[in-house]
Design goal:
2 helices, mainly alpha, single chain
Length: 84
């Protein structure tokens, strides 16, 4: 009775495992956009202890950057800063 519902095809091995047909067309319908940058990553759901530490670390890095002397002055061409 069961053989009536199962055709010969259902017992055969599958031959097609993957196709990329039409995917490129679908992707370009609305255009492939560049990823948006400059947006702030949400900290919602992050570990509060980590967020507090991150806040203080960022503040410390800003202070260190401000304290650092400016070494970006232009030197005269051909001068060696080691020779004095």
């Amino acid at each position: 009775a069961c053989s009536r519902f199962h055709s010969q095809d259902s017992r055969m091995a599958k031959s097609k495992n993957h196709t990329n047909h039409n995917q490129n067309y679908k992707a370009h319908r609305n255009g492939i956009k560049r990823p948006k940058f400059g947006t702030k990553v949400s900290t919602k759901g992050m570990d509060p202890k980590f967020i507090r530490n991150q806040k203080h670390a960022k503040k410390g890095m800003k202070r260190a950057e401000a304290k650092k002397p400016n070494h970006t002055k232009q030197r005269a061409p051909g001068t060696d800063h080691y020779a004095q």
